Amino acid sequence: MPDTQQHHPRPVPVVQHGYWLSKDQTGKGLATEAVRAAVAYAYAYNELKLHRV
Q1: For the chain, domain boundaries
Q2: Extended strands (E) in the chain
């Protein structure tokens, strides 16, 4: 992942989201649901003052 902070006029928080699922849990939409909830939270509360999600 490129360091986006060096190209922005002021420091920008960089946040990464990751997850792991066992094979028997794949294909159930769990990761999709988790990412949707994380993005909704990021936009709703924006406590981290993210430039983009």
Answers
A1: 4-45
A2: none
35 vs 29: CA distance, rounded Å = 10
User: pTM of the entire structure?
Assistant: 0.57
Which of 15, 16, 2 lies closest to 48, judged by CA?
Answer: 15
Task: Go through the chain and tell me how many residues it has.
Answer: 53
Instruction: Provide the percentage of residues in the chain whose pLDDT is more than 90.
Output: 30
What is the distance between the alpha carbons of residues 53 and 39, in angstroms, rounded to a whole number?
7
Q: What is the CA radius of gyration of the chain?
A: 14
User: What is the tens place of the pLDDT at every residue in 28-37?
Assistant: 999 999 989 9
Task: Report which DSSP code applies to 47.
Answer: T
